Amino acid sequence: MTSSEPALFCVDWGTSSFRAYLASLEGKILERNFSGGGILSLAKGEHEEALAGALAEWIAKYGPLPILMSGMIGARQGWVEVPYAQCPAGSKEVAAAIVTIESRRLGPIGLVPGVCAIDRDGSPDVMRGEETQIFGALAAMDRSEGAFVLPGTHSKWARVEEGRIQSFATYMTGEVFAALKDHTILGRLMEGASESSDGFAEGVRAASRLERPGDILHAIFMTRTLGLFDRLEPGQLPDYLSGLLIGAELQSGARGASGAIVIGSPELTARYCAAGGILGLALEPAPEDCAPLGQLALLACRRKA
Question: What is the DSSP string of 105-153?
């Protein structure tokens, strides 16, 4: 086998998404398959069949290859619960904690553990999948330290030193936005997305004025009153709420840092970078395919061990 031939199926399987990559030994992503659903769309015991179906075309074409998976597939709600690696954790520690399960249909499958940490108040925090993306970004950008933000339903802010995740914090920004928009009175005045970015920018600026912990609860209600008094158009109100929550997250997550690397979808990355510009934070998009690149980095560490 040459270094450019298919050698591995990399799977990033989250709560609401399934992403599979066909990779070569030299780290090149040859093909992508984003057709499957997240783990919450499946009942216990259905993951093996779903994975076999998603990889069937590749297996028929290239034969059975090693499979490495990261993300919520290794959570209690996933296929098999994999114990967390403890921070501080680098690729070496995470690779050593990979668990291999035997699939009747697919052979051995490696499951990457998540990472856990204790915050400054003594409470536990966890991530699954984001650690692999961070290692992929480190490898792709040839760096060993920095601040990283991974926006999404549960955004993560991580601090990396000497290639190891030293600490991180989770912010329920995406989930809180969806809950407020779809299940409170705030959504009654909202309409489809506006072409103007004024609502988002106004929300970020409102976040920059927050002084006390409870101020965010007052600012959230302004999503309604700004609409009632025609200060913002109905189509700008979702953007205001989004800007407010993202802006509040940035001020807390980036505390002590002048900027961060953003690992996320193009749309979310653009939003976070725009908010960072308003707040004076230098946010830089990460390269594409951080999840499979991180899996390949972990596999390389495992082979050296």
Answer: TTEEEEE---EEEE-TTS-EEEESSHHHHHHHHHHHHT-S-EEEEE-ST
CB atoms within 10 A of CB 104: 7
Distance CA 286, CA 134 (A): 9
User: Do the Cβ atoms of 66 and 6 come closer than 8 Å?
Assistant: no
Q: Is the dihedral of CA 230, 236, 240, 242 positive or negative?
A: positive
Cα 10 to Cα 32: distance, rounded to the nearest angstrom: 10
Q: Whole-angstrom Cα distance, residue 42 to residue 161? A: 37
CB 54 within 8 A of CB 18: yes
Tell me which H or E stretch contains 18. strand 18-24
pLDDT per residue as tens digits for the range 22-56: 999 888 999 999 987 899 899 999 999 999 999 99
142 CB-contact burial (10 Å; exposed 0-12 / middle 13-18 / buried 19+): exposed
Q: Greatest CA span in the chain, whole angstroms?
A: 67
Q: How many CB atoms lie within 10 A of CB 185?
A: 10
The pTM score is: 0.94
Tokens of 191: 């309409």
- CA-nearest of 262, 241, 266 to 183 is 241
